[in-house]
Amino acid sequence: MASDEAAEALGSSAPVSRRTVLGGLTLIPVAAVLGSIPPAASAETTFQYLSPHQAAVLDAATRRLIPGPTDNSQETTPGAHEANVVNYLDIMLAAFSFSPPMVHAGGPWSNRAGGSQDFMADFVPLDRAQTYAWQQRITNLRAQYTNGIALLDQLAGGDFTSVSTAQQDSILSTGQAVPFTQLLFGHTIEGMYSVPEYGGNANLVGWQDIQWPGDSQPRGYTDAEVEAAQGDALSASSGIIGLLMRGGWAQTVARMGGKGGVNAR
Amino acid sequence: MPGKAIIVGSGPGGSVMAWELAVAGWNVVIFEQGPNYYTNLGGSGPFPTVFSNDELKALYRYFEQPDPLAYPRTFRQTASQNAANTFVGDVNDLPNQVGGGFPHSDVKTTRMWDIDFKGLSLLGPVPGADMADWPFEYSDLAPYYDEIETLIGVQGDLASIPAFVLQHQPQTKPFPMPPGAQMRSSTLLAAGATRLGLHPFPFPMAANSVPYNGSPACNNCGFCSGYGCPISAKPANLIPLRLALQTGRTQLRPQTTVTQVNYTGRKATGVTYLDAQGNPGGETADIVVLACSAILTPRLALLSNLPDPYSRIGKRIMFQNFYDGFAIFLNQRVHAYRGRSNTQVVFDFNDPNFPGARAFALLCGLPYIRAGLCELGGSQNPIAEGKFYQEILGFLPGVQFFGSTFKQLMRASLLRDRLAGVDCFGTDMPYLTNNVTLDPTIKDLNGQPAPRVTYQIGKFEQASQDFFVPLVSAMCGASGAQLYAAIPQSTANSLGGVAPPSGLHTMGGMQMGVNPATSVVDGNGLMHTMDNVFCSDGSVFATSGGSNPTNTIMAVALRTARGITGRRYPAPATAAMGFGR
What's the pTM value of the predicted model, to 2 decimals? Predict the structure, then answer.
């Protein structure tokens, strides 16, 4: 949280463009766009806060952060686009367009794990302190997103969505845009893996990709499920796991000021 | 003669105080700054809630915690630190709503040891630290521990507690509930601990393994530490709070912030507050009990300008200096998302006589060192996991911090489904330089000065960390995990810049003691300088110990409350006999 808070402190004095549309929740259609140019968000989608161009830039950027099958030839599973992460971002920035504001989903459970009703869909009203804080936070976030999107466009020579995916990766991972990339990536992770009531994780694709069962009430787990051994060995020779086994783990632990090691299998 | 009491804070200390006073005939008004997320707390039967298995709400959107934009705190390491380097935000913020923090934890209920209450007498002074004895000892508190554990419902197995632990915390009353299912992640680590000659056992905790007090058994949903329970299977201090409300003599006022304690001379007359709409109001009472937790109780005392002739209010803040252990299994999934966050505990590192510890202490010029207990088997959920990868991918040269590599890590789930984690608590010494003051510039939404925390670990904590961190790592390695490590939480957190202390075990600031010149409240919880202002929370701790603090907060609160109502247990005959060491 500390880095998020620090990031929020940046750029908070910039003008905020408001494009607030009161009304129901709009989901982006899941479009499987194929081809050599970066896929774009569907033009007819409307958002509560983001302009169509802003949404298109965020769609392009979040496709690089968590890529899906239309973004990278090696990917076979859904990414940020398929999870509707841009919709999550739009609802976060437009939380006060709803009543109660879409900040805290309700409880005690959804209808995904044995519940007969999705209580999470009924958001919890904010109290005086929470309203004060979230209005301030979202005002700051709107400024950061407006400025961040403008910066991505600027670094792409005018339109971030029109440059190649390699150029997009380069813009996001180096130089001036990195603080915004880090902020956006943090929120992309939230939109990918949070309960879907917040507008992301569409069709639970974020959870399915990582074998995360999500909310488990009111069913819970049996004592046998709690205690059970479960296999599923990973290949430890290739990719990022191989890198960790061959010194990356030791490097990471040392960087964090700890002690550790690797056991041969 | 029962009168009228104001209690500021509805957490464990306030709940227990309200229960005892109301049962004894007092009229009680409880002020709680945060919202009430329950319905029917004052009625009988179920009390539904809006807590849920929602990681975003609980851990990233301040649903349970005070929002630091509304209630900022500030942190610096030393009093001489440049103001520009002061951190502003969440500084060990505890949950902020009806019930306080404990019902949002995994409700571990260990006891403190004899050496925690009589550390100065039994273990001697520690250079640089303001070491002190409590005004009472373990044997005085033992019957209150027994009573609290029966009241709130604790699962555990007395027979499995190792002899060296029972020697330090004699306990004869069986736990009211047997241990529940043992998590896979916990039993793997416990096996590693046993291989190293350590002594793991089922973790005592206030989660129901069977229906208890009209609340259901825990169904192992997995969202335990950091989450309010959706099915009320860990009601903990909500039980005494409900009992207080059910007397009909207790009023609970949520979303109401006490801004000042009013007093004349040695007598408090009541409090001034802001209601849910921010409108000011006042309430009078015969006694005022401060129960806002270790950082906020001294802050309220300072805001109220309560008499403090020896400048002791806010001094000696203690946090426990956590070490995080990692046992990562590439050959299996350990599914720590099923269960009660962790279900096994190792107490060996809490013992100053742990093999090698005395010799290491001598080398460091210290009389002894100790860490604290280790919680075995925790993990994290995917948003926290993803943000962790976001951070550590930045350390690896030549690796882009996002994209396919990130997705590969999330699917492999090294730091979630394959992680059996350890939290080891490090006993914090009391230092006069670690304290809470009023920040000169930062204010909360009501215009009141933020609490400013000044804190850094000393030689004792550093030496303990140097000695025990490799042992935590070895324990993780002995579990059979392919990747293992132990990392001090403070160094891991500080990678992103100045990082405040973490761990949520906050103690001190209104120290309990016999001498009015060196403590704030007496052994009855009464402020030395006042006739009717009591403290009933973690702020009264004279030492931190290496156990989870809340069981002790409640036991001390009950002892304090029984002092007010005149219903205390007689002092044990054994107390005069000392400890036989």
Answer: 0.93
